[in-house]
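Sequence only, no structure available. Ideas?
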Amino acid sequence: MLALQGQYKFPFFSTLETLAFMDSVTVLEIAKMAIYVLLKISLPLMLVALAVGLLISFFQAITQIQEMTLTFVPKIIAIFVSMLIFLPFMGAELNTFTEFITERIIEVGHDNKEITP
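Reply:
I predicted one. Tokens follow.
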């Protein structure tokens, strides 16, 4: 398989190297990969939002300011800045996964074409 022999490998998904057709195992492995990529892409933004939220909550606890809207503006700014920072990583991960899925579609179509008379 071309995608698994290249520079990027999906961990824990070694069964896709031997499968040449789409069955339920392959579909579930691809679904697991999609969830893994989703978590890998969203984790940096979620961690930034968590850290900013904790800092603001700590600040509110120290100063006893109980303004509910105080957390929104710093979180939005922090997430926007972190998106600018992590966007190349997120785009590269999505590009790699999309190329892998595209190669799988081509392989399955090519394998089915050779099998049918």
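The chain has one domain: 15-108.
Hope that gets you unstuck.
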